[in-house]
Amino acid sequence: MNILVFIERAEGTVKKNSLEAVAYAHAMGGNVIALALGEMDEQELKALGTYGASKVLHGADPKFNAGVIQAYATIITSAMTQENADILVLSDSSLGTPVAARVAAKLDASLVTNVIALPETASGFVVKRSIYTGKAFAKVSLTKVKKVIGLKKNAAEVKEVGSPIEVTPFSATVSDSDFATRITSSEKATGDVLLPEANIVVSGGRGMKGPEHWGLIESLAKTLGAATGCSKPVSDMGWRPHHEHVGQTGVKVAPQLYIAVGISGAIQHLAGVNSSKCIVVINKDADAPFFKAADYGIAGDAFDVLPKLHEAIKALK
Amino acid sequence: MKILVCISHVPDTTSKINFTDNNTRFDSTGVQFIIGPYDDYALARAVELKESMGASVTVINVGLADTEPTIRKALAIGADDAIRVNAEPTDSWFVAAQIAAQAKEGGYDLILMGRESIDYNGGVVHGIVGEMLGMPSVSPVMKLDLVGNTAKLAREIEGGKEYLEVNLPFVAGCQEPIAEWKIPNMRGIMSARTKPLKVVEPASVDSGVKLQQFELPPPKGAVKMIPADQVQELVNLLKNEAKVL
Ligand SMILES: Cc1cc2nc3c(=O)[nH]c(=O)nc-3n(C[C@H](O)[C@H](O)[C@H](O)COP(=O)(O)OP(=O)(O)OC[C@H]3O[C@@H](n4cnc5c(N)ncnc54)[C@H](O)[C@@H]3O)c2cc1C
């Protein structure tokens, strides 16, 4: 069984969640072929062998640096045909998920996203996926020969199972119509930990009182190597950029640790954080609903607790 | 200009999720249904475009007769007419194939929908529809302006945004802040009652995805409260008990 894994690019490096996709495909017991597009760090591509890839294809043309949804779908589809791969595995993201959709439509494949566990193959091919924004799960069987699987974060554990391998150049044929959408520019926070990939998230709500107090959130996040998040009203009011908004209508996170400060815990916010392994809530209202969804809680004033928490964590590091 | 807006009929965001029939059916007892919040943004933007530059707005929903109040709400918000594909929306592929089958004949310049539905959260209907119709698809779109035949878009990416241009026709999966949700007014609600709602039978489709069973997550254990003057204790617990530091 040949499985193609799409490796997503983040500023010329391999996105962390793509390693989980390699690990997932390896754990499925297939022959794992990784495909990377755009200019990328050669050492990182070789290292994909360490995590389970048996072949690494690289379409290094700089015109693939920007993720054009149609062009990527065309290239991935032709790589699957070339490599005789029936299954595509990728990590769900703002690029991966729309690309998965078009590849599935090109191949007439069974398509499922938000997958959280390895398939059960005892009878058929059954995967477990998250639904209702993390409030429930569904087991679905994929019945077509070709399958496209989008993974939620933490669907597989990244392990060293092999050693680095050589990278094989891949020349992709695309047509002009694949570039019908033209990316004119982009804005990206550099150097920060990306929210959807973060192992720790420090998130602030309206209880932080104003953007001028975000230094408290940011400095704690920095010490922890964490990403910063926020509740919807905080991004609606422009205190924080929209891509930090966590919840039902924002980013869904799945970190090891989610620290919520001055967030009441509305059900729409919880929908974005309920896949976290451990939740800490700091809120001055001891009856805030968020405490019911938390593992640890401190009923106290954020402006008093945060500096102390930061000191205690600095002492630990 | 002709705009098609695809709307899902989903449980209100505050709903408790339960299943019946041996965990194979969603339990709709006591659940209030709404237009998918992301679809609601798409609809609001379509109505804004109609108001600012003139357009006809058709909404489409794949659902059984019980979705009609949701469709009427979309008409009250400002859509001109509606199509209901009379079938249970079992999965993303099925829904996308029905939308594509209807859109093929419609000659739409713009097909808008939410980036994902909030029941199955697939996030793929826009891409499948785009591919089936041979149109570009872009998602998640947080800004959409039209200059003649060209759309200028902003798409959210992890940690930022990307600006794009694409010519009509195309498909977009939308999210905030593309527009503000619109609340129907009395006139809208009155006129929605008589706006055309066409019911069509579904095309035959093999989606290749079959539900086996639903599951609920295990109940959450009780929270451990730590006094505000013992922050050090929290750090100890995170390190030694939860093992997340
Ligand atoms: C369809 C829909 C979708 C939505 N999607 C989302 C979503 O994706 N994400 C989201 O977050 N929301 C979403 N919402 C909004 C949601 O319902 C809540 O309104 C929102 O989450 C509240 O944000 P908050 O907790 O920051 O603010 P508030 O509810 O105002 O809570 C502020 C909290 O801060 C505490 N506080 C105040 N001062 C202090 C202090 N000094 N120290 C410590 N604590 C303090 C207060 O006790 C309170 O609990 C959605 C709503 C709808 C209707």
What this model shows, in words?
The complex is a heterodimer of chains A (about 325) and B (about 240). Chain A has a 7-stranded parallel beta sheet, sandwiched between helices. Chain A has a 5-stranded parallel beta sheet with strand order 14-13-15-16-17. Chain A has 2 domains: about 180 residues, Rossmann fold (3-Layer(aba) Sandwich); about 120 residues, 3-Layer(aba) Sandwich (Rossmann fold), CATH 3.40.50. In chain A, about 60% of the residues are buried. Chain A is α/β, with parallel strands linked by helices and about 325 residues long. Chain A is globular, with a radius of gyration of 21 Å. Chain B has about 240 residues and is α/β, with parallel strands linked by helices. Chain B starts with a strand and ends with a helix. Flavin-adenine dinucleotide (FAD) binds next to helix 6, helix 7 and helix 8 of chain A.
Based on the coordinates given, report the CATH architecture of chain B. 3-Layer(aba) Sandwich
Helix coverage percent of residues of chain A?
Answer: 10-25%
- In percent, how helical is the residue content of chain B? 25-40%
How many domains would you count in the coordinates of chain A?
A: 2
CATH-defined fold name of chain B: Rossmann fold
Strand sequence of the main sheet of chain B, in spatial order?
11-10-9-12-8-1-6-7-13
Total strands of chain B: the figure is: 15
- Which fold name is given in CATH as the topology of the largest domain in chain A? Rossmann fold
Number of helices of chain A: 8
pLDDT < 50 runs, ≥5 residues of chain B: none
Largest interface: A-B, 95 and 79 residues
Distinct ligand kinds: flavin-adenine dinucleotide
Rg from Cα of chain A? 21 Å
Largest sheet report of chain B: 9 strands, mixed
Cα shape of chain B: globular
| Global morphology of chain A | globular
Unreliable spans of chain A: none
The main β sheet of chain A shows up as: 7 strands, parallel
N-to-C series of helices and strands of chain A: EEEHEHEHEHEEEEEEEHEHEHEEH
